[in-house]
Design a protein that fits this description.
The structure is a single chain. Helices cover about 70% and strands about 0% of the residues. The longest helix has 26 residues. With about 80 residues, it is mainly α. The radius of gyration is 15 Å and the shape is elongated.
Length: about 80
């Protein structure tokens, strides 16, 4: 049970850090994006990832959700 709590706390911490980084990239601006999102996805999706800071923030948030929802193999 302690491992589950620790992993959930790590997941929430990663989600908060990712949200802060994504917000900085979305509202402040930054470097050019790694992927040309306007070419590959609809424009309403591309608007959420305007630069590399927003892309990294979104990746960190997704990794955080894995830590939150992944149950250890020992729980049955």
């Amino acid at each position: 049970m302690g491992i589950l709590r620790r992993s959930v706390l790590i997941g929430y911490a990663l989600s908060i850090v990712g949200l802060a980084l994504w917000s900085y990239g979305y509202f402040i601006g930054g470097h050019a994006a790694l992927i040309d999102w306007n070419r590959h996805v609809p424009s309403w999706i591309a608007d959420y990832l305007p630069n590399i800071e927003a892309e990294l923030g979104m990746i960190i948030m997704c990794i955080g959700t894995v830590f939150i929802y992944w149950t250890p193999f020992t729980d049955k």
